[in-house]
Amino acid sequence: MSKKQKTYTAEFKVEAIKLIEANQGNVSETARQLGISMQTLSNWNNKAKTGTLAGTKQYSPDLNALLEENKKLKQQLKTAEMEREFPKKGSSILCERKSVRYAYMKQQRHLFPISFMARLLHVSVSRFYDWLKRGMNKRLVQRNQQTILVKIAHEETKQSYGYIRLTKHLQAQGIKISTYDAVRQIKKLNQLYCKRHKRFKRTTKSDHNRAIYANLLEQQFSMTKPNLAWSSDITYIWTAEGWLYLAAVKDLYTKQVVGYSLNERMTAQLVCNALTMAIRNQKPTKGLIIHSDRGSQYCSHEYRKILEKCDFQGSMSKRGDCYDNAPIESFWGILKNELVHHCNYKTRDEAKADITKYIVLFYNQRRIQKSLDFKTPNQIAENFYRLAA
């Protein structure tokens, strides 16, 4: 049972104000003496000071009446303005059934008072709140929660997943979304679009007379285990300081980027550094096929020396055929589409840090791929070595 609110007469309030004056304006001490809350006594004191507390020496009946009249006029003006504005928004709703009017009231309640809208739309306030309570059923609550989770996942995956991969990503995190259609609808209703692909230039310069390797892969990219074949290439990224070149090495089984190198110059050392990182990380055995295009960096003495030292097999695409090196070309498309084309790098160091973070923390570690049965490259590698142990 709720506690009954205590009321005080006008005379009591006047005497309380006199006691404050006797206590030299000490409101807290006066409230303690009278056994009432300090907030209540402060309210009375403020009214006395402004001349609106009846019975006090500062009280002015004319001023109080004027303030009350001013308050009523303001309220009437506000109501008139709302009545003039509301028909523009809700005139057509009057012809709809009550559930539609309730839904409109819910939509507009941050702009107009509920009681005001109920009067103009000829519905009951209590019925509106009953409808509101019934409307928040379990299914609607679940969809609201799923919408938030889909939005978060959309940003976590760098706005790059379609509804199928996004559903798999959420399910992998233990989130119960049973159908692709639910995620597809949420993405559509909330305009969660994937980043668009943009074209980028190739960097291959095969106009040279250096020795080349034969094409050992012939577009056969399916492998049975890691470190049987790698694919390598160079691309470049624009920054305000000038071009930044990226060489990468990709394993054809795990789809991991196992080595990479970034430099402001596109030299043989760039591809050698990427290959050296891959060798250090993966420790492959002899016979590994390393496929690339016919770029001069891959025909350099330094590059060939590494292959010969490790007893690896070099392999090169046919002239002008990008499909021969499709795995690494696919990675360039993903990198540019999901990251580079949406950034304006001021410095090369900024681009290096961002691209390194993307490769190591997102692409290898978190980005699921349909061709990997919606697993990440790192998961494929971990699963293989766990089963092989």
From TrEMBL:
It comes from the Bacteria. InterPro entries: Homeodomain-like_sf, Integrase_cat-core, RNaseH-like_sf, RNaseH_sf, Transpos_IS3, Transposase_8, Transposase_IS3/IS150/IS904. It holds the Pfam family rve. Gene3D superfamilies: Homeodomain-like, Ribonuclease H-like superfamily/Ribonuclease H. Residues 222-385 form the Integrase catalytic domain. Belongs to the transposase 8 family. This is IS3-like element ISAba21 family transposase. It comes from Acinetobacter albensis.
